[in-house]
Design brief:
The chain is of the alpha/beta class. About 25% of the residues lie in helices and about 30% in strands. The protein has two domains: about 250 residues, Ribonuclease Z/Hydroxyacylglutathione hydrolase-like (Metallo-beta-lactamase, Chain A, 4-Layer Sandwich), CATH 3.60.15; about 40 residues, no CATH class. Helix 9 packs parallel to helix 10. The mean pLDDT is about 95. The chain binds zinc ion. Zinc ion binds next to helix 2.
Length: about 300
């Protein structure tokens, strides 16, 4: 397993007995992060046996309460437990003001630093293993989606190199870095002597109407997590509120050629059995689709 995803909340504006507000937990190696942090997220994490103390990043898609109101509670609990590691919080333009308000709700100074980063459209995290991008979507004035993109894993094809007489050493490193080398008067192209494992891509739409930018960002993704607030029979309601229907989400998944579509952020009007209507709507466009539910885990 390289990536673990846990759905902590899958309801839209109003939570239900079975579904909490939006929050998606993602773990990659030692890095743990949340995408959105709706009210009640910390209790959902406790039930799922996940620790807010270990979170490195929190990414907020927009400032509506169902995506944001869990933050003050998480900050206060981490402070009571004397967290020391800084927490990085990312969100669209305007997030700084909202996070500062969330911090000010605490009667005490936090025991750790919170670094707030505002951005609507750029790479916001990058390290040797992965990068995370934010991109604008169509909902509130500042609303974003996020793409988690693992970098390709490159291993040396030792057997093939040994066959031409190159032994482990500095040349291996150069080949791994993608640099052309010279060996016995011949140019060696690195691509011929590496084994490339394609990186994993997971994209989260946040709240949005049908959006071409989501299609572009989720091209060939392993998983597209897309909101599907409404069924197709009330498309008009989706247009008015700048949300997607399940069929819109299916269309995006098909146009982006993703491997799997996971629908989330359902209107509370749909009880469990009624959600099949949304699944069927999406299937008219894209076959490999599932409905998220609270505490559902996906491992890749
Ligand atoms: Zn929402």
């Amino acid at each position: 397993m390289r990536v673990e995803v846990v759905f902590l909340g899958t309801s839209s504006t109003i939570p239900t007995a079975e579904r909490n507000h939006s929050a998606i937990y993602l773990r990659y190696g030692a890095d743990r992060m949340l995408f959105d942090c709706g009210e009640g997220t910390q209790r959902q994490m406790t039930i799922a046996k996940l620790s807010a103390m270990k979170l490195k990043y929190i990414f907020i898609t927009h400032m509506d309460g169902d995506h944001f109101l869990g933050l003050p509670g998480i900050l206060q609990t981490c402070s009571m437990r004397e967290r020391e590691a800084p927490l990085e919080i990312f969100g669209p333009k305007g997030i700084k003001k909202h996070v500062k308000l969330a911090i000010d709700l605490s009667p005490f100074n936090l025991s750790f630093d919170v670094n707030i980063h505002e951005s609507d459209d750029r790479i916001i995290v990058e390290n040797e293993q992965y990068l995370i991008k934010t991109f604008p979507v169509i909902h509130r004035e500042h609303s974003v989606g996020y793409a988690f993109i693992e970098k390709d894993i490159i291993n040396i094809n030792e057997e093939k190199l040994k066959r031409i007489g190159i032994k482990p050493g500095p040349l291996y490193r150069k080949i791994k870095e993608g640099k052309e080398i010279e060996w016995q008067g011949k140019k060696i192209s690195p691509e011929d002597y590496i084994i490339r494992k394609k990186g994993i891509k997971i994209v989260y739409s946040g709240d949005t109407a049908y959006c071409e930018r989501v299609i572009k960002e989720s091209e060939n993704a392993d998983i597209l997590i897309h909101e599907a607030t409404f069924a197709q029979d009330i498309k008009q309601r989706a247009i008015e509120t700048k949300h997607s229907t399940a069929r819109d989400a299916g269309l995006v998944a098909r146009q982006a050629n993703v491997k799997q579509l996971v629908l989330t952020h359902f209107s509370s009007r749909y009880k469990n059995e009624e959600l099949h209507k949304l699944l069927n709507d999406a299937k008219k466009e894209f076959d490999n689709v599932i409905l998220a539910k609270d505490f559902m885990r996906i491992e890749i």
